[in-house]
Design a protein that fits this description.
Elements (H helix, E strand, L loop, with lengths): L23 E8 L4 E6 L2 E9 L2 E8 L1 H9 L5 E10 L2 E8 L11 H19 L9 H9 L3 H37 L12 H29 L9 H7 L9 H8 L3 E3 L7 E3 L1 H16 L12 E6 L4 E5 L1 E4 L2 E4 H23 L20
Antiparallel strand pairs: 1-2, 1-5, 2-3, 3-4, 5-6, 7-8, 9-10, 11-12
């Protein structure tokens, strides 16, 4: 005979409400080295961390022009804007990378490709015959998931770019936290420090490189599909290996690759092409840490330090080495350099597709149901 186990009662010795943050928001500019600036109000920014009396401080106020001049004089690179906040206790965040060639950075390359995928879906859905049956969660899922190649690949590119954004944001957060901690501990004389959070850093760096490779290959696959290549062409390496000169005029995405110098003809008499320029460098970096070893495996990569930029006013930066071909670079400086190139490529490629990248607006026809939370 099966017997039901007695129900275990909840403990009532002690109880406390889980706190919910009040509504609020913060808008910040993120720089290499671990420094960041938060907007207090229009044209008023504060910077942190700045060391004063052996204690890390927030200092202000700077105008936007003064802020960028102040940090640029120390060789620090602007990475992104960050908007964070709480609404009815729920946290939300938006990451807006600085993309070369753009004037409006509120829409990231990931946002643009998401809009492309969404607009392609709406065109397909509008062409579907009317459904006499009530919409269900499963029927909507089946319609959404029956994607064309351009929809599927645009969505995949967007998701990969978003993962890249999250990785860079996490690395920048790590730098900021480590710099504050080292200042608070008085370790500003180049002492090499390792912490348990280093494992998180290793994971975020490897994630950045992995998702770069995915986004690159999804874009190459989209290009191959648009010019009618075999469906087995599913990576940049396979696309480039199959390219011939008569393909170049078939798709503007290829023109982006060639104009930026990321694909070039091999030396004569070959009729083939090869990856070149920054794309070759980034691919080699990705291959190093995806196929040969993970970041963090080298001894120099296991510790970081605070470096003095201006001791008179207390400006320091965090430094974490990454070893590439026996040369040492600062990790976030290197990541920021590649991050800008990634943003530029995918922003230009999105425009080259000719697809509608406008942010979708919803009407009462698009809304199936509304539920107040």
């Amino acid at each position: 005979m099966n017997r039901t186990a007695p129900k275990v009662a909840i403990c009532t010795d002690w109880s406390s409400q889980i706190p919910r943050n009040p509504d609020g928001s913060a808008f910040s500019s993120i720089f290499t080295g671990g420094l960041r600036a938060t907007q207090y109000e229009r044209e008023r920014w504060d910077v942190a961390p700045i060391l004063e009396g052996r204690v890390p401080h927030i200092k202000g106020y700077f105008s936007t022009r003064e802020l960028h001049g102040f940090l640029r004089q120390y060789g620090l690179t602007f990475i992104a804007f960050s908007q964070v906040g709480w609404s009815r206790g729920a946290f939300h965040s938006t990451w807006m990378p600085w993309t070369p060639g753009k004037t409006d950075h509120s829409v990231s390359p990931a946002d643009t490709w998401s809009s492309i995928a969404g607009n392609l879906y709406r065109l397909r859905a509008a062409a579907e015959p009317p459904n006499s049956e009530p919409n269900t969660h499963d029927s909507i899922a089946n319609l959404v998931d029956a994607r064309t190649d351009p929809e599927r690949l645009s969505s995949a590119i967007s998701l990969s770019l978003r993962s890249i954004d999250l990785s860079v944001e996490a690395i920048a957060d790590y730098y900021h936290e480590q710099l504050v901690n080292l200042m608070a501990a008085g370790s500003t004389n180049g002492e090499l420090v390792a912490t348990t959070l280093d494992q998180n850093l290793f994971a975020h760096v490897n994630s950045f490189l992995m998702h770069f490779g995915s986004a690159r290959d999804y874009l190459a696959t989209l290009c191959a599909s648009r010019i009618g290549m075999d469906s087995r062409i599913d990576s940049l390496a396979r696309l480039v290996d199959s390219l011939r000169s008569d393909h170049l005029d078939k798709d503007p995405i290829l023109a982006v690759f060639t104009t930026l110098g990321y694909i070039k003809p091999k030396a004569s008499p070959s009729t083939k092409f090869e990856v070149s320029g920054w794309m070759q460098q980034a691919t080699e970096l990705r291959n190093e840490f995806m196929h040969r070893r993970p970041f963090g495996a080298k001894f120099h990569e296991r510790t970081g330090s605070a470096r003095t930029l201006d001791s008179e006013i207390g400006v320091y930066r965090y430094v974490r080495p990454i070893v590439v071909t026996d040369a040492k670079y600062d990790l976030l400086d290197l990541i920021a350099k590649h991050y800008r190139k990634i943003g530029e490529l995918f922003d230009k490629a999105a425009t080259a597709t000719g697809y509608d990248a406008e942010i979708p607006t919803f009407t009462d026809v698009d809304i199936i149901s509304i539920k107040q939370l």
